[in-house]
# Entry
Amino acid sequence: MARHTHPPHKHLRESIAQLAARLMAEGIDDFALAKRKAARQLGVAETKHWPNNSEVEQALRAYQALFGPGLDAGESQHEVLNSLRAQALQVMRELDRFDPLLTGPVLRGTATPYSDIELMLFADSQKDVELHLLNRGMAYKTGEKRFRFGDSWRMAPLLLLSDSGMAAVRLAIFSVDDRKCLPMCPIDGRATQGARLTEVQSLLESARP
# Structure
């Protein structure tokens, strides 16, 4: 009987995905960077053999199921997610007027102890958000991030909150009209899934023993 074998490129993709997943569990929070480092370590130069973000996320879920949220984390994946979601909820309450949405690994369930909390805000202007933060004594740094809307890309303002003892929080600011058509998720290419304040609260309540 003929033996079924997998093409070499399939094993390369799986190896890169598994190593990239481990690198993300150890602190890298960018899929592209994790794949580049993994491919370099494995000596795979051709990007056509690299896995997509969805394959890496699947490998990350498998890694976390076996080893927990990350090396020497001292917490279970469940505890890490609950802690980050509780912090997200606290910030969302402070920013409730901007209809915040929780996105990213904290919502998707793949967050590590090193993950940032990612929130989308919807405002008439970036200045409105900045003034709101200043009035509440919340320090921040400014930046930008590129988001994909259909076939086009757009830069959006990004504010980084950093408070001692809490995870970093990234606030991406969009127009009020963008609430009807969210940017595409870099993992699966679909519209980004987000959770409102009440939905995050429900996630935390359902996770209680």
Residues 1-7 have pLDDT under 50 and may be disordered. The first strand starts at residue 101 and ends at 103. DSSP finds seven helices and five strands in the chain.
